[in-house]
What does this fold into?
Amino acid sequence: LEQMRQWYLKSIQFKRCLHIFFASKIELIRYSLIVFLITRNHAYLVY
It folds into this structure.
């Protein structure tokens, strides 16, 4: 029974780490997209 509890806690920790990882990935993608759009708009403004 104790082993099951340990495994359960480990899986919860793993899911949390995974969630944090994906959240940061999405933030990174969103940030780079915004930067890309801004630079593209700057290029349009320059030309």
In short: Residues 5 and 46 are 61 Å apart (CA to CA).
